[in-house]
Amino acid sequence: MLLNQDPLSGDYIIKAIEDDCLVLPEEKICHSCLISNQDIWHRPDITSVAQLDQAVIDKVLSLKPEIFFLGTGPKIVFPDPDLMRPLLEANIGVEVMDTHAAARTYDVVVAENRQAAAFFILDKPKNN
C-alpha cells in the first residue's frame, strides 16, 4: 500500500507498508521501531503491546513530540494505561491505532510540519 509519493526533506516518512514492513525512502524496516521527524530507533525485541517498556516511553519523552502514535499491528491493542501516563502528563497526545492507520496518520502530521513520533509493532514471520 503506497502511503506517500512526495518525500519531505529532512523528515523520516513512511512511503508504504509492504509484507508487514515499513518502507522509508532509503530503507525497509521489518521489525518494531520508533520513528520521529528526526530519528529512527530500532527495537526488534518488541513483538507485542505487552512487551512495551519504560525505555520506549523515555525515548518518546526525550523527543518531545506533540503527538505519539502507537501502531499495534493488524488489530488495535491498548497498552497498559500506567505505561502511557508519563506521555499524557507531559502533554503529549497519544493515539493507539492499527499499524496501517498509524503510518498514514503519522505521515499526515509530519507533512503539516508538526513534531510527531510513532512506535510500530512489527513482527514479520521468519521463513524457515
Classify the helix fraction into a percent range. 25-40%
Count of helix runs: 3
List low-pLDDT spans: 1-9
For the termini, the CA-CA separation is: 26 Å
CATH topology: Hypothetical Protein Mth938, Chain: A
Share in β-strands: 25-35%
Gross CATH architecture: 3-Layer(aba) Sandwich
Total beta strand runs: 8
Number of self-contained structural domains: 1
Q: What is the CATH class name?
A: Alpha Beta
Main sheet: which strands, in order across?
5-4-8-6-7
Compressed to H and E, one letter per element, the order equals EEEEEHEHEHE
Q: Could you say which overall geometry the principal axes of the C-alpha atoms support?
A: globular
| Main sheet properties | 5 strands, mixed
Radius of gyration: 14 Å
Secondary-structure content class: alpha/beta
Supply the CATH superfamily name. Answer: MTH938-like
Mean pLDDT: 89
